[in-house]
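Closing statement on the (S)-3-Hydroxyhexanoyl-CoA sub-project.
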Amino acid sequence: MTLTIKQIGKIAVVTVDNPPVNALSQAVRQDLWNAAEALDRDPSVDAVVLICAGRTFIAGADVSEFGKPPLPPHLPDLVTRIEKTAKPWVAAIHGSALGGGFEIALGCRFRVASPSASIGLPEVRLGIVPGAGGTVRLPRLAGAALAADMVTSGQPVTALRARAQGLIDAVVEDDLESGTIDFLRLALAQPLPPPLCERYVPAVEASFWETTAKSVALRAKREQAPLRALDCIRKACEYEFEAAMEFERETFLDLRGSPQARALRHVFFAERAAPRPPELRATVPQSIRSAAVIGGGTMGAGIAAALCDAQLPVTLVERDSEALDRGLSNLRAIFESSVKRGKISPDVAEERLAAVTATTDYGALADVDLVIEAVFEDLGVKRDVFARLSAVCRPDTLLATNTSYLDPGQIAADIAHPERFLGLHFFSPAQVMKLLEIVPTPDTAPVTLATGFALARMMNKIPVRAGICDGFIGNRILKVTRAQAERLLLSGAEPQTVDSAMRAFGLPMGPFEAQDLGGLDIAAFQRRAARVRGETPFAPVADRLYALGRFGQKSGGGWYDYDKGDRTPKPSVAVAGIIAAEALATPQRQWSEGEIVDCIVLPMINEAARILDETIAARSEDIDLVQIHGYGFPRFRGGLMHYAETRGLGDIVAILERFAKEGLAEPPCGLLRNSTGSGRFGLP
Ligand code: 3H9
């Protein structure tokens, strides 16, 4: 049994208990159905409270059942069954009532919630639309505009806001169960409101649908579910209840098996698995109650802000008072921008800043639990910082370096207790970007690694373990992206056609626009370091642009020209000349949009397969998360590796071989070739 029933006077309390999140598995649906039948027949019951055990109300349909044939009772029928019960049901919500969970609540006659609860229909984030009446009942409760906003964005709403919007009937401050029973007793003394299936949606202006469709399409980019969800809301407003339900169900079933929904489900489970890798489940992390950041530049201030957001007291250390002032003003600017964007209130911003201690004295770090070094990307400078930290910190203080390219093992070479050291590669801006590459050295202890993952959970980041190599997972693949983009230029494509092809594929920006935004100097600096190490990075055009001082937007020109004060990229005659000069020895050809994408993305897949083969990444899902959360790879494609498996590994091998023959890419690696039989990475 996934639920229990008890009776308090004439009120039955149905408690669903299906850990971890009370998802609506077939067993839960069946038990709820049976409860509705039994309680309808029971003359001693006047009304029913539906409440949940554990950390949340029903968080939705069981997503793991989506790949399988649906079994009865189907969720839309269950919601209707609850709506049609002879006794009124009230949903008592704590945690999150999401998707099917909120749809069940919409089937109840009343909804009551704890102040910290939230409700929502996040289905579009899974590439589907609500499939149990959410798009039909919500506009009947809240009107078309609010329903369209909630359903097409998938964003949850907090209980207090939901109360103000009429989505729930009461907020219960104290004990939810007894508060809901009190609410119900009062409600039963009055005439009952009609169930939502008997209500109508107030008319909207004629232009509403067209205007909303435009803004939804803009926000959804190439995801199809949000516009299909808007269609459902429109039908819910224009059709009778039953016909609208039928339309919603057809749309739900049509989308459920779509490639986008499969990709988004893959990302859903990968994101939930990432913070708790199976190999660390048995390791108890150290507790982190205080943190310090060395360096208040862009990265250091971003990391400090993210630690403050995780409610940790932070000490910011700089080498002198001038640098410290700069660091503090960087930090202040971050919080001010969060206030401007409505993310936090001015009071919270002040509170967060007040939790920061600024100092030039390493001695202040004697009792801190965690130190993250974020100084200049130079081995000598970083080693110097860790020598000082080694001397002042407790032997169990977790020491971390934020580095994108340096070998954390070398940075930690001389520290005391190297088992408490690891690399943490944050992405800029660190207070915003979700990805965190966690890079253990050969000396890092399992407890240190587990603490790195626990820290990521505290900071609401998506952690991915990466092995040590140049660029770890993400930047190693990025190097291939950029080299391939230059190969395309040398063989006849133009920067703007390459960028537009990659945008059409779903990236927010093409590789040249992205470099102009970030600055060509950073990559040039890394290539210089690589050459010192004896490597031969391929960037003939980027090297020449750098030599000319064309660093991107910040210098008024990079791959594109920019007018003063205008960030719109304009094709550059000077750059075209440099490309032509560098391309003299390369055969020219015509490139279609699809071929451009293949010439960049398939070599990225090849490099990713090598990364997997060398165990730099533990799982192909980890590479997907790195690409989605660090580099803007389209979520609806499920990440680089999911895209590859969906596209067909055999097909990819054949195209890479063709490119390799023309000197346009490396040949497919062993792991990629060996995986074509199964179509899954690493499986023969
Ligand atoms: C839907 O309802 C469709 C209907 O309209 C129509 C149907 C006909 N299913 O996130 P956490 C697992 S679509 C299965 O770390 P938190 C998760 O994988 C659904 N499993 O917890 C993880 O497993 P494990 C609409 C699920 O406390 C564990 O639970 N609903 C589901 O940080 C803990 O997850 C949603 O999209 C699920 N629906 O956050 C809600 N949800 O322990 C999605 C979670 O093995 N869920 N799991 O790694 C969430 O947003 C968060 O889980 C929640 C709790 C906020 C509820």
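Residues 313 and 355 are 5 Å apart (CA to CA). With this model delivered, the sub-project is considered complete and its resources will be redirected to Aim 3.
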